[in-house]
Amino acid sequence: MSWIIAIIVGGIIGWLASIVMRRDASMGIFWNIVVGIVGSFLGRIIGGLVGAGSTLTSLDPVGLLMSFIGAVVLLAIVNLIQRGRAR
After folding, report:
1. Where are the domains of the chain?
2. What's the pLDDT tens digit per position in 6-37?
3. Of 61, 56, 12, which Cα lies nearest the Cα of 36?
């Protein structure tokens, strides 16, 4: 059951991050889920660096915020890489 919740929450987090980073038109539901899940791992790392890493759970508001921040950071890195290739 936790995998289903992770996929649903990851999809929502990835979709919100893609809207913030203006990449929603170029991403499908699969990539939204991938960005959300990988972003949550990245957010957990960022949370660990600022001292909130050990208390984060998947449905905790702070955990959701850190997952969102991680997904936005991941999309920013992807944007930088794609811009470097295009030039």
Report:
1. 2-86
2. 778 888 888 888 888 887 666 777 888 888 88
3. 12
Looking at this protein, which amino acid is placed at residue 80?
A: L
Angle made by CA atoms 1, 43, 53, in degrees to the nearest 5? 85
* Position 48, amino acid: G
Is residue 6 classed exposed, middle or buried when 0-12, 13-18 and 19+ CB atoms within 10 A define those classes? middle
Q: Which residue has the tokens 């890493």?
A: 53
Q: Are 17 and 67 in contact (CB under 8 A)?
A: no
Q: Output DSSP code: residue 51.
A: T
**Distance separating alpha carbons of residues 70 and 35, to the nearest angstrom:** 9
